[in-house]
Amino acid sequence: MSFDQYERSTAAGNPRRLYEFVRGGQRWRYTGGDRDFQLDTQTFRAVAISDDGIRQSGHVASDVLTITAPGDFDVARLYRGLPPSTEVAVVVRDIHEGDTEARVSWVGRIAGVNRPRLETSEVRCQSLDAALGQPGLRLAWTRGCPHTLYDRNCRVNPEAHRLPALLATVAGNVVTAGAFGLHPDGWLAGGFLAWDLGEAGIERRGIRFHEGERLILLGAGDGLRVGQAVVAYPGCARTIAICHSKFANAPNYGGVPGLPGKSPFDGTPVF
């Protein structure tokens, strides 16, 4: 029988819902019920998992898919501190026992995780349509540069300024390495620290403070340990002077240093 025939039947259908979470090359697969489910070569582990139903109303807030799972849910653990720097994709499939056709019912990403009770995790997921429908940022006239460092508008090549290092100490969100002391204090502030998590991909944390060999990160980093190989990228103060002296990137500076402090629209008859 096909999937549609199982769906229309009155007694032959035995539906199973399959959940797949993807972060880089790392995948977690789950299904509700009392036993694991095998789909081709993939095993979906049986846990106490369910959702509040798939909706397509057109309203972002109403279409959020909430997945309820145990308190020690592996995916929820990623969000106990700061969320991962790369998004976690979610794919929901429906299938019937005895069938090999798994229909993709929903695709999106994790928007956040709540723990209403110690034994329960609630994973809030946002559909791709909702993500694409969000308004973008508007570019404004400012003296400071509005571009994100190393993006396509900034055009600075991050690999030309990378600083490899081996961590000497790790204490929460404070890390030290001898290579960090090769640059003056504040050189790396506003940049980010990157390290390889293997199948999960590259993890990043912003650098809030730099002094000597010590960095204070914006939150503790998953997988950071003594001896960990990391790469630090310097930050930018978003002024024309720093853009020119630090990155030699003045032609791509996005601000207007000579912007007057008086607006032509403030009602003054003579500007």
The tally of beta strands, per DSSP, is 16
How many distinct domains? 2
Distance between the termini: 78 Å
The strands making up the biggest β-sheet line up spatially as 3-4-2-1-7-8-9-6-5
Global mean pLDDT: 87
Supply the number of helical segments: 4
Structural class by helix and strand composition = mainly beta
Shape: globular
* Helix percent band: under 10%
Low-pLDDT parts are none
Element-level helix/strand string: HEEEEEEHEEEHEEEEEEEH
Tell me what portion of residues adopts beta-strand conformation. Answer: 35-45%
Largest sheet: 9 strands, mixed
Radius of gyration: 25 Å
Protein name: Bacteriophage phiJL001 Gp84 C-terminal domain-containing protein
Domain Bacteriophage phiJL001 Gp84 C-terminal: 186-262
InterPro entries: Phage_phiJL001_Gp84, Phage_phiJL001_Gp84_C
Structural features, described:
By secondary structure, the protein is mainly beta. It has two domains: 124 residues, no CATH class; 72 residues, Thrombin, subunit H (Beta Barrel), CATH 2.40.10.170. The chain contains four helices and 16 strands. The strands form two sheets. Strands 3-4-2-1-7-8-9-6-5 form a nine-stranded mixed beta sheet. It has a seven-stranded antiparallel beta sheet with strand order 10-16-13-14-15-12-11, with no helix packed on it. A hairpin with a 2-residue loop joins strand 1 and strand 2. The chain starts with a helix and ends in a 24-residue tail after the last helix. The relative contact order is 0.13.
